[in-house]
Amino acid sequence: MAKPVDFLIGGTAACGAGLFTNPLEVAKTRMQLQGELAARGHYVVHYRNVVHAFYTIGRVDGLLALQKGLVPALWYQFVMNSVRLGLYQRFNDLGMTRDDRGRLSIWRSIPVACICGCLGSATASPFFHGMSS
């Protein structure tokens, strides 16, 4: 039987990962958006690669800017993965991912995983729109 702690563990683990990967998201987003409002080939390249983006963001905006958008990103990860992993564990406990002999069935696990992933994404969607860099 899935307990609240199962939901909490999934969300907390995702937040731990999000804490370390958020600077990559900030750099990626800034690299994607550079020159977005200028004509093709007529914009200044501020970030040549990820390492240069880290260096430039840290130098110009300060090191804390590499964690910009961290709070909504962690909420997004926590909500999405708590729901996704907690529900999957619940369905697993109910035997919905196992065959008649009690063995894990890929053909039963895939639809359960898809449903749990969709529900997790839908539940966390409002937090995704709050993330920015």
What topology emerges from the helices and strands here?
Elements lengths: L3 H30 L16 H12 L8 H24 L12 H23 L5
Helix pairs in contact: 1-2, 1-3, 3-4
Features:
mainly alpha
How large is the share of residues in beta strands? Answer: under 5%
Compute the CA-based radius of gyration.
20 Å
Count of individual helical segments: 4
Morphology call: elongated
Number of E strands: 0
Q: Give the averaged pLDDT, no decimals.
A: 91
User: Which stretches are poorly predicted, pLDDT < 50 over at least 5 residues?
Assistant: none
- The succession of helices and strands, N to C, reads HHHH
Largest sheet: none
N- to C-terminal distance: 40 Å
Which structural class best describes the helix and strand composition?
mainly alpha
Oligomer: single chain
Helix share, percent? 55-70%
In short:
The protein is built from 4 helices and no strands. The chain has about 130 residues and is mostly helical. The longest helix has 30 residues, at about 5-35.
